[in-house]
Amino acid sequence: MKEITTKELADLLATKDIKLIDIRTPIEYLAGHIKEAKNFPLEEIESFDLPKSDRYYLICRSGNRSGQAAAILSQKGYTDLVNVQGGMLDWDGATINDL
């Protein structure tokens, strides 16, 4: 599995349209998420059903759950997965709070 830092993620978001999946719980997501991120909680990752040919960037609070999600998705046939090291704890960019 590939990994990138939150700085590398910020650089990508500034220049590209990427598929960023936030796998935290809905409450964690609502409390503060990256604008481009879509919420798909780890607890529901078995039902993830998006095109397997796309690249997905996975983020969570620290990088642990997103790593778990990547392992599960790999078993489901997804091959282009990127884990964001340090997760939201390391993210220093803007966030959206929906609470």
TrEMBL record:
SMART domains: RHOD (SM00450). It comes from the Bacteria. Residues 14-97 form the Rhodanese domain. It holds the Pfam family Rhodanese. SUPFAM superfamilies: Rhodanese/Cell cycle control phosphatase (SSF52821). InterPro entries: GlpE_sulfurtransferase, Rhodanese-like_dom, Rhodanese-like_dom_sf. This is Rhodanese domain-containing protein. It comes from Lactobacillus equicursoris DSM 19284 = JCM 14600 = CIP 110162.
